[in-house]
């Protein structure tokens, strides 16, 4: 009887992953804190939830615009320098958000913050994976890189709840500052130098096509929840325009032999295509719940913001519990088995929320959230890992961009 031994992760990759996690926590905490703060922001800024929702929607739009240029920017300025630039943008934008005086100014500063976050998210995986020879130990490495995503749902809502319970909403953005400063110091000291690779020319045609394409798609989808659904002009018109521009973008990238903004040819490889498709679906489940669950606890059940934050902890605990196990099983059993099992668990644990009301037992919901978080963690790690198997070093940034855009 033989046993499968998972390959070891190089020490340099482990150090880089931990350094990237330190800075990445700022982005994840920001997202999870914002989800618990929406109801408070709507009240304090005297605007409806439909307006304050743009605090998150505008952030996502900026995220989508920034992500496609990461591959070019890394080649132009170097990975380490780009990471520090992005982290600095996020830091300054966080301070600006804390000084916002009304909803429009807050939304504007969130756009800048989204640009920094959009550069950081694909770069986290890229910089770590590029140090792993032949993809050895990818599952465990992605478990490290995904640590912020596991800790965020646990600590983010609690921090947000404590701040909003004792201080005003401006302080929720100051939480990012120490993480950014520590992340910058560690990156400067420990991240290996990744020098620029020549002076690649930016694919302006691709950028002009993909940026409005992503904005149109995301903007159209963000309006679906309003009366009229897909029949609304502000839904179908930007959505159709975005899809047309996206098709034109893909065509332009396929026709470009070198210097493409995003190497969409990687989608011909089954692992990259499958990973992107699954990340699209799991992303809807993950980020949809981050928005809906806090509003469910606060609006439907009438809980205080701190209570709602505490009620969200079990999902993060479940994700944290599955993180190491999922990484090891991905390296030994394969991504497909672990991801399918995780999806089944997450799907079954989502059904009770479709049947819940304002009097559903909170202990039952907490147990369901633990199971749902466990399944969520079991899905994300293998799916994010498999996309990078067998890729060359220069292909890793493009695969990271494609998967992050899908997510």
TrEMBL record:
Domain of life: Bacteria
Protein name, entry field: Multidrug efflux MFS transporter
Membrane topology summary: Multi-pass membrane protein
PROSITE patterns: MFS
Primary localisation category: membrane
Organism lineage: Bacteria, Bacillati, Actinomycetota, Actinomycetes, Micrococcales
Subcellular location as annotated: Cell membrane
UniProt keyword terms in alphabetical order: Cell membrane, Membrane, Transmembrane, Transmembrane helix, Transport
Family: Belongs to the major facilitator superfamily. EmrB family.
InterPro entries: EmrB-like, MFS, MFS_dom, MFS_trans_sf
Major facilitator superfamily (MFS) profile domain mapped to chain residues: 16-407
Transmembrane segments: 12-39, 51-70, 82-101, 107-129, 141-163, 169-189, 201-221, 233-251, 272-299, 305-326, 338-357, 363-391
Native source species: Microbacterium jejuense
Family matches, as NCBIfam families: efflux_EmrB
């Amino acid at each position: 009887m033989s046993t499968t031994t998972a390959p070891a992760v190089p020490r340099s990759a482990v150090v880089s992953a931990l350094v990237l996690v330190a800075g990445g926590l700022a982005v994840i905490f920001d997202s999870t804190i914002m989800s618990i703060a929406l109801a408070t922001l709507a009240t304090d800024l005297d605007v409806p939830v439909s307006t304050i929702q743009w605090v998150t929607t505008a952030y996502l739009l900026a995220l989508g615009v920034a992500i496609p240029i990461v591959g070019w920017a890394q080649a132009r300025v170097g990975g380490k320098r780009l990471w520090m630039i992005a982290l600095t943008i996020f830091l300054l934008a966080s301070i600006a958000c804390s000084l916002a005086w009304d909803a429009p100014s807050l939304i504007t500063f969130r756009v800048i913050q989204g640009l920094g976050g959009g550069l950081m998210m694909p770069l986290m995986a890229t910089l770590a994976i590029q140090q792993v020879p032949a993809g050895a130990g990818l599952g465990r490495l992605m478990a490290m890189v995904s640590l912020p995503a596991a800790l965020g749902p646990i600590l983010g809502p609690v921090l947000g709840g404590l701040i909003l319970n004792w201080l005003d909403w401006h302080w929720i953005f100051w939480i990012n500052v120490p993480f950014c400063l520590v992340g910058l110091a560690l990156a400067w000291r420990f991240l290996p130098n990744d020098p620029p690779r020549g002076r690649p020319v930016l694919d302006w045609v691709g950028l002009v096509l993909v940026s409005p394409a992503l904005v149109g798609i995301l903007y159209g989808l963000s309006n679906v929840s309003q009366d009229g659904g897909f029949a609304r002009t502000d839904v179908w018109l930007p959505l159709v325009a975005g899809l047309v521009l996206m098709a034109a973008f893909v065509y332009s990238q396929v026709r470009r032999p070198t210097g493409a903004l995003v190497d969409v040819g990687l989608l011909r490889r089954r692992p990259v295509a499958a990973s992107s498709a699954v990340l699209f679906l799991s992303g809807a489940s993950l980020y949809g719940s981050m928005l809906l669950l806090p509003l469910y606890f606060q609006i439907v059940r009438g809980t205080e913001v701190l209570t709602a934050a505490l009620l969200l902890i079990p999902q993060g605990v479940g994700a944290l519990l599955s993180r190491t196990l999922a990484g090891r099983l991905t390296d030994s059993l394969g991504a497909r088995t672990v991801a399918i099992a995780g999806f089944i668990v997450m799907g079954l644990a989502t059904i009770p929320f479709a049947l819940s009301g304002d009097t559903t037992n909170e202990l039952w919901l907490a147990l369901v959230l633990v199971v749902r978080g466990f399944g969520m963690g079991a899905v994300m790690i293998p799916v994010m890992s498999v996309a990078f198997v067998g890729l060359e070093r220069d292909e890793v940034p493009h695969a990271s961009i494609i998967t992050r855009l899908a997510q």
